[in-house]
Backbone:
């Protein structure tokens, strides 16, 4: 039985007061909802402040990234244990904005950076394992760029990213991850991947999980869609059988719109 989820990725937005106000708006609106996991991923600096606001509610805390080492001389990085000590239950790993196939940022065809921070598939795998080893649930993101889609590579890219992210994990560990299909061309662009197509690609994600972990393994794993999820398209997305919820950027920055995403998901998918 998969738990539906709506997760807000605030990215590099919200100072402390803004974060507190936004978290309060979510707790007031959907803080006691059941049957849908509600997750907020503020920037590192606001984790503790948001943790204080959500205490006692059903809202859970996520970080947006981590480094895999426990401690040491890694200037600018944050360890898994630092995140659990802030109250995090989840961490986003392998978001396209953090990736870069060759270990360096990748520009798109207009020279905008689409994969900005150079995390390779191997880094994503190491980060996901470090998260699991510390009791954090990794939300592992996969997805193709526009150029990859236009070259007919969507399924191959998504399959390869899933297999690489799960490399070396045992069945119990794989059972503890969440996947998110986020087509890069749909992130922050207002272009949503058509719900039937998102559903189809999430089928590819599930087939890759089964390939690694054995037939049927994917049936219990929550897989989200991300990329311009908004109140006016969330219903048709979560009505799709393979889509268990959303990983949301822009529409998670206003409590009103995020809460609507949660309530629609509860209506359609909640128990
Ligand atoms: P948008 O909802 O702003 O397109 O961002 C999606 C995303 O990247 C969530 O992780």
Residues:
């Amino acid at each position: 039985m998969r738990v539906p989820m709506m997760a807000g990725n605030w990215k590099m937005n919200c100072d402390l007061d803004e974060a507190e106000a936004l978290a309060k708006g979510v707790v007031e609106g959907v803080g006691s909802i059941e049957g849908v996991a509600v997750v907020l991923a503020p920037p590192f600096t606001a984790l503790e402040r948001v943790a204080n606001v959500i205490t006692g509610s059903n809202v859970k805390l996520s970080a947006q990234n981590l480094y895999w080492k426990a401690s040491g001389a890694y200037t600018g990085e944050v360890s898994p244990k630092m995140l659990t000590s802030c109250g995090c239950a989840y961490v986003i790993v392998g978001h396209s904005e953090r990736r870069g196939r060759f270990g360096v940022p990748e520009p798109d065809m207009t020279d905008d950076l689409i994969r900005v921070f150079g995390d390779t598939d191997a880094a994503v795998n190491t980060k996901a394992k470090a998260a699991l080893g510390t009791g954090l649930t990794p939300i592992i993101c996969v997805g193709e760029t526009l150029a990859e889609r236009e070259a007919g590579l969507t399924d191959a890219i998504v399959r390869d990213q899933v297999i690489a992210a799960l490399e070396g994990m045992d069945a119990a560990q794989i059972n503890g991850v969440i996947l998110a299909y986020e087509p890069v061309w749909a992130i922050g662009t207002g272009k949503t991947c058509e719900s039937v197509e998102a559903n189809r690609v999430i089928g590819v994600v599930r087939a890759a999980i089964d390939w690694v972990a054995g037939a049927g393994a994917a049936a219990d794993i929550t897989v989200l869609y991300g990329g311009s999820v908004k109140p006016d398209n969330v219903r048709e997305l979560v009505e799709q059988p393979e889509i268990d919820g959303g990983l949301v950027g822009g529409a998670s920055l206003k409590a009103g719109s995020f809460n609507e995403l949660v309530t629609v998901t509860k209506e359609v998918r909640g128990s």
Notes: The longest strand covers residues 137-142.
